[in-house]
């Protein structure tokens, strides 16, 4: 029993942390779609300098891309 409880606690913590991380990341991406300054900041951190037209195109691409886990399953090839 002294070994089982820490292992179960570790597994529960890892699973919980994963889902909290996914939730946080999804919220950040949703915020970024609506906030051009946040998108510009991320682009600069990655080494890109985007002009206004490129910013609009990037926002449009993010809005058109479905969020994973929002009822969008993988499409099967038939």
Automatic annotation (TrEMBL):
The keyword Disulfide bond does not apply. It comes from the Bacteria. One of its GO terms (cellular component) is membrane. Residues 53-63 have a biased composition (Polar residues). Residues 53-78 are annotated as: Disordered. The keyword Protease does not apply. Pfam families: UPF0154. It is found in: Membrane. It is a single-pass membrane protein. Keywords: Membrane, Transmembrane, Transmembrane helix. The chain crosses the membrane at residues 6-25. Belongs to the UPF0154 family. This is YneF family protein. It comes from Paenibacillus solani.
